[in-house]
Design goal:
This protein is of the alpha+beta class. It has one domain: Chloramphenicol acetyltransferase-like domain (Chloramphenicol Acetyltransferase), CATH 3.30.559. The chain has 2 helices and 5 strands. Strand 3 and strand 4 form a beta hairpin.
């Protein structure tokens, strides 16, 4: 799956093109900072990237695309998961009605 990095600072939205022969493409925006609360309730800056996916709806279900993004987010927020061997973890389906 191709990655379309748009790494200029403050690029907050990027929509990649899905080229013929591919079914999806991932986009990553530039780093920006946004206010967040720390554990003591103080305001701090936190770095934020936006991760997106464009996909061919004829091939990929939107639910599967969302599950992919959730898994990618979890991996990026927990770098140790990226170094761990691949495991067959069940997808979290609690957020999706049957």
């Amino acid at each position: 799956m191709p990655l379309a990095p748009h790494t200029y600072r403050d690029v907050v939205t990027a929509v990649p093109i899905v080229f013929p022969g591919q079914t999806a493409a991932v986009s990553l925006t530039g780093l920006r900072e946004e206010p967040a609360l720390d554990r003591d309730g103080g305001i701090v800056r936190r770095p934020v990237y936006e991760l997106g996916v464009a996909y061919d709806h004829r091939v990929i279900n939107g639910r599967d695309a969302v599950l992919f993004l959730k898994a990618a987010k979890a991996d990026l927020e927990t770098p140790a998961r990226l170094a761990a061997p691949l495991a067959a973890e069940p997808a979290e389906e609690a957020d999706f009605p049957a």
